[in-house]
Design brief:
There is one protein chain. Helices cover 51% and strands 15% of the residues. It has 455 residues and is of the alpha/beta class. The protein folds into two domains: 285 residues, Zn peptidases (Aminopeptidase, 3-Layer(aba) Sandwich); 137 residues. A hairpin with a 4-residue loop joins strand 8 and strand 9. The longest helix has 38 residues.
Length: 455
C-alpha cells in the first residue's frame, strides 16, 4: 500500500468494522441492509455528495436463498414414493413437484431469472447512488464504482468446515462432499418420480403389450429384459429413498434461514462498499486529480445475494435517461485475501463475458504494483453471479475486482466473515489498484473515446 493511501485504507477498514460488528448481518431487504444504506448515505453527505435512494421490490428466497426448499421437495418425494407404491396416481403429483422444482432451480437459482419471484414473499430493498461531477457540470464519460450492501444467509456446510481451517483440503472435501451428495439425492428422486409418471401414463393410456411385460411379465408368462430391469430398479428404490432423504436434509441445511446466523459480510461485501466510498472521497478532497471531463459515481446495490436484483433494478431504472451512456463500471466485490488479487472476467452461470479493456487495465495495474496472486490475476466467477452481469448486459463496460480465494472457504457466506480475519493493508492495496485503473481509463478515454463493451 502506498503511504498516501493509508488514511483512506484505515477509514475504509473502519467502515468495514462498523458494517460487520455494529450493524451485523444484512440480508436482502432486511432492516439491517437499510441501516447500512442509511449509514453510507450519511457518509456521502459528510463529503458534500447528495445521495439518492432508489427502492425496488425483492423476493429474497426466490433465488439462491431458497435452496433449502429444494431439499424439502426432495424429502417429500422420498416419503411419498412409499405411498405411491400402493397409490400409483401419486407419481403424477410427484412428477409435477419435480418438474417445477427443477425449473425453478435452473432459471431462478442458477440463471437468476425472475419468473418465479411472484410465488415468494416480497420485501423492499434499495440502491443508493451518489455522483461527483466537474465544477462546470460538463462531462464526457462516467466511472461508476459499485458494490453490494447485503450479505448472504449462512452456508452451514462452509461454516462447519471451520474446524478444518488449518487443513483446507479437508474443508473443501467436507463442504463439496455434503453439497454434492445432497444434490445427487434430490435429482435421483426427482428423475425417478418423472420416470414413474411417464411409465404409468404409458401403461394407462396405451395399454401396450410392452408395458404389461415390463411390470407384470413374469405373471403373464412373457420374457423380456425390460421386466428384469424394472424388477431390479423396484428393489433398489425400496431402500434408496431412505438414503436420498438423508442427502436432501443436507440441502435443507445449506442456507440457514436464521438472520442471526447470517454472514456479517466484512469481506463480502462491506469491503467493496468502503472502497467505492473512499475513492469518491479521495477525488472530492483532491479535485485536481479527477480525470478531465469525468463524472465519478458510487452505486451501492442492494440484494445482490438475492440474484443481482439491485444492479438489475439500477440498470432498468436508468437505461433510458442517459445515466449509463459512456459508462465504465468498476464493480468491487470482496477485497480481503492478500494472496488472491484478481479481476473476475466472466460469470459462467450467467454466460456473460466482461469487458476486455478493463480486464487488461487491472492486470497491468497488478503488475505495476508488483502484486503476485495465486490466481494469476484473473478468474471466472465459479458460482452464482456478480453485479457486472446486469451492467454488461446494459451496455456498460464492466468487470468485477476482488481479492478473494475463489474456493469455498469457512468464511465465505458464513458469520466467520469478520474484519479481524484480514487487514487494512490489504484494503489499502485494493485502493491503490482502483486509482491505477482509473488513471488508465482516463488515458484510454482521451486516446480512443468509448468503444463499447468488449465481448
Amino acid at each position: 500500500m502506498k503511504e498516501e493511501s493509508r488514511k483512506y485504507a484505515e477509514e475504509a477498514y473502519d467502515i468495514i468494522n462498523h458494517a460487520a460488528c455494529e450493524i451485523g448481518s444484512r440480508l436482502p431487504g432486511s432492516e439491517n441492509e437499510k441501516k447500512f444504506h442509511d449509514y453510507m448515505a450519511d457518509k456521502l453527505r459528510e463529503i458534500g455528495i447528495k445521495p439518492v435512494s432508489e427502492e425496488f421490490a425483492v423476493y429474497p428466497r426466490a433465488s439462491i436463498g431458497g435452496i433449502p426448499y429444494a431439499g424439502w421437495a426432495g424429502v417429500i418425494l422420498c416419503v411419498a414414493s412409499y405411498f405411491a407404491r400402493a397409490i400409483p396416481y401419486l407419481w403424477f403429483a410427484m412428477c409435477g413437484l419435480s418438474v417445477v422444482t427443477i425449473m425453478w432451480l435452473i432459471f431462478s437459482v442458477f440463471l437468476y431469472k425472475r419468473w418465479f419471484d411472484m410465488f415468494f414473499k416480497q420485501q423492499v430493498s434499495r440502491n443508493t447512488v451518489g455522483e461527483l461531477v466537474p465544477e462546470d457540470g460538463e462531462y464526457d464519460y462516467t466511472i461508476a464504482l459499485s458494490g453490494h450492501t447485503d450479505t448472504s444467509w449462512c452456508w452451514k456446510h462452509s461454516e462447519h468446515a471451520y474446524k478444518y481451517r488449518d487443513k483446507p483440503v479437508l474443508g473443501i472435501i467436507s463442504t463439496y462432499g455434503k453439497v454434492g451428495f445432497g444434490a445427487i439425492c434430490f435429482f435421483v428422486m426427482a428423475f425417478y418420480s418423472i420416470f414413474q409418471a411417464v411409465y404409468y401414463t404409458a401403461l394407462m393410456v396405451f395399454q401396450a403389450k410392452w408395458a404389461v411385460i415390463v411390470q407384470y411379465g413374469a405373471q403373464y408368462g412373457y420374457t423380456s429384459p425390460f421386466a428384469d430391469v424394472y424388477n431390479v430398479l423396484d428393489k433398489i428404490f425400496l431402500f434408496l429413498p431412505i438414503i436420498c432423504c438423508i442427502g436432501c436434509f443436507f440441502v435443507i441445511m445449506w442456507a440457514d434461514p436464521n438472520p442471526e446466523n447470517a454472514s456479517r459480510g466484512a469481506m463480502d461485501n462491506a469491503s467493496g462498499i468502503a472502497l467505492s466510498y473512499e475513492v469518491m472521497k479521495y477525488f472530492k478532497e483532491n479535485p485536481e486529480k479527477i480525470p478531465p471531463r469525468c463524472r465519478i459515481m458510487n452505486v451501492y446495490c442492494g440484494s445482490e445475494e438475492a440474484g443481482l436484483r439491485g444492479s438489475m433494478a439500477f440498470t432498468e431504472e436508468h437505461k433510458n435517461d442517459g445515466m449509463l451512456n459512456n459508462c465504465w463500471n468498476l464493480n468491487i466485490d470482496s477485497v480481503a485475501d492478500e494472496d488472491y488479487f484478481e479481476v473476475v472476467i466472466k460469470d459462467d452461470w450467467q454466460g456473460c463475458r466482461f469487458d476486455k479493456d478493463l480486464e487488461k487495465m487491472f492486470k497491468d495495474t497488478f503488475d505495476e504494483l508488483e502484486i503476485v496472486s495465486k490466481t494469476n490475476g484473473a478468474i471466472h466467477n465459479p458460482v452464482g453471479g456478480c453485479d457486472s452481469t446486469p451492467m454488461t448486459k446494459a451496455g456498460i463496460k464492466s468487470v468485477t475486482f476482488a481479492a478473494q480465494n475463489p474456493i469455498l472457504t469457512y468464511y465465505y457466506h458464513t458469520w466467520h466473515d469478520m474484519p479481524d480475519r484480514f487487514s487494512a493493508e490489504t484494503v489499502g492495496t485494493g485502493f491503490d489498484v482502483l486509482l491505477g485503473v482509473i488513471d488508465k481509463i482516463a488515458a484510454f478515454q482521451e486516446e480512443n473515446g468509448f468503444n463499447g463493451p468488449q465481448k
